[in-house]
Amino acid sequence: MEPTYNLDSIIRNSLTQDLLRFTTAGSVDDGKSTLIGRLLHDSKNIYEDHLSSLEKDSRTAGRDEIDFAMLTDGLKAEREQGITIDVAYRHFSTPKRRFIIADTPGHEQYTRNMVTGASTANLAIILIDAKNGVLTQSKRHGFIASLLGIPHLVVAVNKMDLVDYSEDVFNSIVDEYTAFCAKLSPRDVVFIPMSAFYGDNVVVHSPNMPWYDGSPLLSHLENVHIASDQNLIDFRFPVQYVLRPNQDFRGFCGTVASGVVRVGEEVVVLPSGRVTRVERILTAGQDVEIAFPPQSIAVCLADEIDISRGDMIAHPANVPWLASEVEALLIWMDTQPLNLNRRYVIKHTTKTVRGRISTLKYKIDPNTLSRQSTDTLHLNDIGRIELQLLKPVLCDEYTTNRHTGSFIVIDPDTNFTVAAGMVIDRSHTYQRAAAGSMTAKQKNLTPHIGHVTAQERRRLFGHRPVTIWMTGLSGSGKSTLAYAVEKRLTEDGHACFVLDGDNVRHGLNRDLGFSADDRFENIRRVAEVARLMNESGLIVIASFISPYRADRANACRIIGESSFSEVYVNASLEACEKRDPKRLYAKARRGEIADFTGISAPYEPPEQPDLAIDSENETLEHNVAAILAYLKRAGFTS
Fold first, then answer.
1. Run of H or E including 366
2. Which of 137-146, 244-253, 286-295, 346-355 has the lowest mean pLDDT?
3. Between 323 and 51, whose confidence is greater?
4. How large is the average pLDDT for residues 515-540?
5. Confidence (pLDDT) at 76
6. How many angstroms separate the Cα of 62 from the Cα of each of 58, 335, 507?
7. Buried residues in 547-566 as b, exposed as e (16+ CB within 10 A)
8. DSSP letter at 336?
9. Which one of 101, 185, 339, 503 is most buried, by most CB atoms within 10 A?
10. C-alpha neighbours within 13 Å on the C-beta side of residue 315
11. H-only helix segments in 167-232
């Protein structure tokens, strides 16, 4: 009896399965197209007529066996040259999961195509020829996969048949690439030895490699956990189109970039800031109660609000940045180099604006991940830039949101996409004004003097106001020491307060990053606050890394030399890294934190501090006593 099939059940099962998007990359002739062809063939995802055509084409090309690369190399030039030029997409499914494959070129000339194919992927397969080992292009693709935020990485060590299925060769490649991946950010890296040509470890375990006890490729693809890859916290809905078929319906159409939205929820329309509620959500012509990425929906709102393409809908308590200047990593994809004097078109979500790349900070060597100074970017170069926009965009950091944190750069003359960018931070540029300088607007301001004199405040509090400025590496013990000193001073009847770096950045300086300019502004603001606190009669204990001498000197000028005491909390980098209470050094070593003092950014210790504290070898009690003794010697306390 022939089996019966319920077509509706098959379609429903297909639509409810997980969808895994993955991309392949590697150097030329590493076997990417062959791997995909073999994967489709051995998983029974090739129709018989297609297989017959493939056999015929392989014989025409003079090959005795089926050339599975021809399955994805669809262009005539690709088949003639035996290389992949364009991105080839293939859909297939198994009982466990649906898949979309992006077969991308390996030739360095077509790296930009790899960026295109990888931009929406959950997982990247990077092929390495076992005979050739790890090449620069292999590292380049791993680095790009990391930049693009692909959370899962499979390193397929292919052509193991050419090295007699040697475990030692495989382990050597694993060790080298693992050391390289330590500097990158994928959460999940898996190594699989295989021979795509013969099907070893592609769909089933290979008897030729009994020493490998991991999963074959297809099994790993079916079971890798991707449910947490989507950002379901930050609701972002860029409006693409306003649907108004009649006077009774107004819907705002687009794709949910991230987060979840429900009927009845309060939302805010940006950049206008108007708050309203979701009245209806429609998808595929049907009303639904909830929507999530990557659904294409139409949203109807309770109030009549002027909304157009490029606007964004979000939750009122969780909104993106509105930024006209951003810092970003840029992958240059054009044969014409970057022109810093030229304006480009910037496409971000559904918004298109004009802008220019105002600053090129450095480019990154994909082989060593070191920074190199440069005045332009060429094809496939990756650099850190500052981007100025004529109109602000609603964006997030790329690491938080791949959709609202990415953009493309378009040549306005050719309409060619010349670069892809990933937002790192809003750009903050501050003019380092000398102490005492005054703008035209400030000249119209008149400072007011209160009726309580400094002498009266001293008599009231029983001390002279001072700012104890503690500087040192992260993990040197500044905050612990600051709060211990505060407690002792308070017990002795003195009015004092701690200004701590982390606390300040959660409020007053939450808009600042960690670039040199941002660090300068961070310290400037803190110094202004400390000066006001000193004027109120308080003792201020400021605990900040403040790595640059010039910034600390500027803080001294703002507060005043008579009220500024620099305390160097000294501990070696090794000791600080060993303590690492916030695990920041570990993240910095992995490349997850840029411009981290002591690792990727410098620290300039004080040359002549008012007091030096040895927090590595002395006890906390000893150091507290040393600071209290200093305050008494200097005449701040009695």
1. none
2. 137-146
3. 323
4. 89
5. 39
6. 7, 36, 70
7. bbeebbebbbebbeeebbbb
8. S
9. 101
10. 15
11. 167-181, 217-223
Distance, first Cα to last Cα, the chain: 102
pTM of the model: 0.59
Q: Which residues of 182-212 are buried (b: 16+ CB within 10 A; e: fewer)?
A: ebbbbeebbbbbbbbbebbbbbeebebbeeb
CB 427 within 8 A of CB 326: yes
Average pLDDT over residues 161-187: 88
Write down the pLDDT at residue 13.
52
Write the pLDDT tens digit of every residue in 600-626. Answer: 888 899 989 999 999 999 999 999 999
The 3-state DSSP class for residue 220 equals helix
- Length of the chain, please? 638
**Residue pointed to by tokens 């996409």:** 417
Considering the chain, what is the average pLDDT of its residues? 83
Q: Residue 408 forms beta bridges with which residues? A: 347, 420
Show the 3-state SS of 397-417.
Answer: CCCCCCCCCEEEEECCCCCCE
- Amino acid at position 398, single letter: Y
Q: Which residue has the tokens 């964004």?
A: 312
The residues pairing with 322 across neighbouring beta strands, listed in sequence order, are 394
Average pLDDT over residues 584-600: 81
Decide: 67 and 80 in contact? Cβ < 8 Å. Answer: no
Which is it for the CA torsion 4, 7, 13, 14, positive or negative?
positive
Report, as an integer, the average pLDDT of 402-421: 92
Provide the angle, in degrees to the nearest 10, between the axes of the packed helices 549-559 and 516-535: 20
Query: Strand 261-262 to strand 188-193: parallel, antiparallel, or no bridges (unpaired)?
Result: unpaired
Q: Running DSSP on this structure, what letter comes out for residue 434?
A: P
Domains of the chain: 10-223 (3.40.50.300), 236-314 (2.40.30.10), 322-426 (2.40.30.10), 451-633 (3.40.50.300)
Average pLDDT over residues 12-25: 72
Q: Does residue 12 carry a pLDDT above 70? A: no
CA-wise closest residue to 331 among 396, 236, 407, 262: 407
Residue 193 Cα to chain centre, angstroms:
30
Is residue 296's pLDDT more than 60?
yes
Quote the pLDDT of residue 51.
Answer: 61
Question: C-alpha angle 128/133/139, rounded to 5°?
Answer: 65
**CA 310, 349, 21: angle at the middle one, nearest 5?**
150
**Which tokens go with 510?**
């939450």
Place of tokens 């990593």: 329
pLDDT tens digits for 22-34? Answer: 888 877 777 777 8
Long-range contacts of 620-624 (CB under 8 A, 24+ apart): 620/477, 620/480, 620/481, 620/484, 623/481, 624/481, 624/484, 624/485, 624/488
Calculate Rg over the CA atoms of the chain. 30
Q: What values do phi and psi take at 156, rounded to 5?
A: -95, 110
- Is pLDDT above 50 for 75? no
Judged by average pLDDT, the poorest of 167-181, 389-403, 438-452, 528-542 is 438-452
Give backbone dihedrals phi and psi of 373, rounded to 5 degrees, phi first.
Answer: -70, 145
**Residue 76 class from Cβ within 10 Å (0-12 exposed, 13-18 middle, 19+ buried)?**
exposed
